[in-house]
Amino acid sequence: MAFQWQDLPLALLIGIGATAVMDAWLVLLQRLGVPTLNFAFIGRWVGHLLRGQFAHAAIAEAAPIRGEKAWGWLTHYAVGVGFAMVLVAIQGTDWVRSPTLLPALALGIGTVAAPLLVMQPAMGAGFAASRTPTPLRNCLRSLANHTVFGFGLYLSALAIGLVSR
């Protein structure tokens, strides 16, 4: 099924809501002392990407980019909206009116491929965080974060469905 542009407002709301749920989870983890991603590094990566550099040996050591924190947060939410667009394209607006957990959770879990196979290698951490001191722990954290994103997709669609009735 293809994405219908008239569904863009729904996908925007679902993506923003799901990303906010994930962010609330990350704040909880930080308060519990669990290290989480510095979104400035995503912005730094995007800034260098716009200048033609895709991969880095270590993104923390790359030259800072003006506004990198804002770029990181903007990218984080744009990607969340993009994944919501995929979900709405696959499931259709009927799913948004009456959401079920499994499609949202499956898509959320599937999105873990983005950090493990694209972002981490491009930022110098290797495929599936293989160049970090604790690759398995980092992969499991990514999986947990993206599972929470999947729950966020469901909860956001559920909220939209309730409000639109």
TrEMBL record:
Keyword Transmembrane helix: yes
Keyword RNA-binding: no
Listed transmembrane segments: 7-28, 70-90, 102-123, 143-163
InterPro entries: DUF2938
Alphabetically ordered keywords of this record: Membrane, Transmembrane, Transmembrane helix
Record's protein name: DUF2938 domain-containing protein
Organism field: Acidovorax kalamii
